[in-house]
Structure formats: C-alpha cells, structure tokens
UniProtKB/TrEMBL annotation:
Pfam families: Glyoxalase
UniProt feature coiled coil, ranges: none
Organism whose genome encodes this protein: Amycolatopsis carbonis
Name of the protein this chain belongs to: Ring-cleaving dioxygenase
Every VOC domain range: 7-132, 154-273
Length: 321
C-alpha cells in the first residue's frame, strides 16, 4: 500500500431524538456543534457534527438523528465502541460528572496501560473516555460545564467487532496503510502513522456473536483521513485495483468522500481534510444556522418545515450575546 492514512477523520452514528442528542454531546460531553446540516441522501433528517472548536479531522463524531428509527443491535460487522481521548488525570472528574448527569460508567485498564471509562449515550451508543499515559497535545473545546483541563481532546480509537480477523486486518494494513500494534487476547490493535490517540483501531474477534444491526444507537460508518483530493483519487484507484467495491468520489461540502466495506462488514470512508467547516460560515458562528448544499438550497423552506426545531445550549457559542 503506497498511500497511508494519518488517522481517524470522524465517526458517524445513528441517533434518536435530535434535541436529546444535542443536549448530551454539548452539555454532558462538552463538544461543540460545528455544523448543522442535513443527511444529503435524506434531507428530512439532520446531520449533526460535533468536535473541537473548528471541527478538525480526528475530533469529530457525527449523527443522523432519526426520532422514529428502530433500535439497533450490537454485533459483528460493525464498529461497536467509539472512544474519546481525555487527560490522564481527568477520569475521576468525568466519573463524577457523568454520574451527576445520570450516566452509568464502568472503569477498566487495557493492555496499553490506558485507563478507560465506558458508558452509553441516551440512545445506547457505546462510548468510552480513554486517558492515554503519554497525553494528547490536541486543544479541547472549553466550556463552563466541561472545562479545558478535563475536556475531550478528540477521538482516541474505534473498536470493530468481527467474526474472524484475517481479512479485516488485511484491509487495515494493505488498504489503509495501518500497522499492527499489539494483541491482547481476542483484541488486535492497529495504528496509523506514529499511533497514539486519534490513530488507533481495535479489531475484536467474537465468532460466537450474532451479526449486528445498524440502526439507532449504533455506528453507521468510520472515516479515515486523506490529506487532499489528488491523494484520495489515487487511493481510490489503488483500492479498485485490489478488487474493492468503492463508491465514486462524493461531495460532502466540508470534505470529499469515498465509501467501501471492510471484509468483516463495517462501512468505511476515506475523507479529505479540506475544505473544513468554515467553508460556509465563520469560525465563531459554527453550528448556529442550518446549512444546505447548493443543490438543496431551493428546497430550504420545505426542508426547514420537515426538521424539528433545535435549541442550542449557550455553551456552543459562549461569546454570543
């Protein structure tokens, strides 16, 4: 593989009630809503992007919140845990903070000597906060509810559940340019570039587990970073040459994307770093207004009528009077 990803770009999941989703990720987890737009394939549904101040690649979790969608089922063929990176000394604070919000947690330590706090969001999505011993230099979004000294730095890793590891491992090493890092029992860790928070994927092998069902409370896809469009185009050709069924390059306004499935069944994406979320609104105003791509703008009145109104907590734009 001549082209290699530098790490995770974003994780996209399916949520339920959009207001509940906003309240949890802004107020409970302290992320910033950096873009309020719609699912381009289903514009009657929001697409909400949460991340750091500017929504840098590697900080992002995004949602399609369908209020009437059925509950999903965790299992093989999907990403089953999304982990965020937090300061090493912050897990006690997070445990108390989440408890005060009515969120149950469990604490573990993994083979990399990382302390982890596991919990679920209101729709049942499996999440974790990981305190990496070597720290994480990324700047957080700072709010009164979740101050910078404890705040999420960005994505740490994702866990994929599969019935067998060989073909999935081959996709990560030969298709995405990751390298094998370590094994702990039936969990195999791979890393992009120099590794560390934001560049990790764990492959959990559970052949006895039934196939998962992607719906509310589950991950829809996992996106990996490409630095620019020429690299992405060349990458696509390499994947096609390997016999991978890859989509055409799609315009997502804030990045360009290609999609394909790894052999275990999880939908993967390769997304460009640019142009980013300040493409259509200033940094200080990110997430406040509904943004539509040019081809949907003529339908704005219809789309706004279909979408439930969102009330954004003041934490999203604390400088706003």
């Amino acid at each position: 593989m001549s082209i290699k990803t530098s790490g995770l770009h974003h994780v996209t999941a399916i949520g339920g009630n959009p207001q509940r989703n906003v309240d949890f990720y802004l107020r409970t987890l302290g992320l910033r809503l950096v873009k309020t737009t719609v699912n381009f394939d289903d514009p009657g549904t929001y697409h909400l992007y949460y991340g750091d101040q500017s929504g840098k690649p590697g900080s992002l979790i995004t949602f399609f919140p369908w209020s009437d969608a059925p509950a999903g089922r965790l299992g093989t063929g999907q990403a089953t845990t999304t982990a965020f990176s937090v300061p090493e000394t912050s897990l006690g604070w997070w445990q108390q903070h989440l408890k005060a919000q009515g969120v149950e947690t469990s604490q573990i330590r993994n083979a990399d000597n990382e302390e982890t706090l596991a919990f679920r969001d209101p729709d049942g999505l499996q999440l974790a906060l990981v305190a990496h011993p070597q720290g994480d230099p990324r700047d957080p979004w700072d709010t009164k509810l979740v101050p910078a000294e404890n705040a999420i730095r960005g994505l740490h890793s994702v866990t994929l559940s599969v019935s067998k590891e060989d073909a999935t491992a081959g996709m990560f090493t030969d298709g995405l340019g990751l390298s094998f890092h370590s094994q702990e029992g039936n969990r195999f860790r791979f890393e992009a570039g120099e590794g560390g928070p934001g560049a990790l994927v764990d492959v959990l092998v559970t052949p006895e587990t039934p196939r998962g069902l992607v719906a509310t409370g589950t991950v829809h896809h996992v996106a990996w970073r490409a630095p620019d469009e020429p690299t992405q185009a060349a990458w696509r050709e390499e994947l096609v040459d390997k016999g991978v069924n890859v989509t055409s390059i799609l315009d997502r306004q804030y990045f360009r994307s290609i999609y394909f499935r790894e052999p275990g069944g999880t939908l993967l994406e390769v997304a460009t770093d640019a142009p980013g979320f300040t493409y259509d609104e200033p940094l200080l105003e990110l997430g406040r207004a509904l943004k539509l791509p040019p081809w949907l703008e003529p339908r704005r009145d219809e789309i706004e009528h279909m979408l439930p109104k969102l009330n954004l907590p003041s934490e999203n734009n604390p400088e706003q009077k």
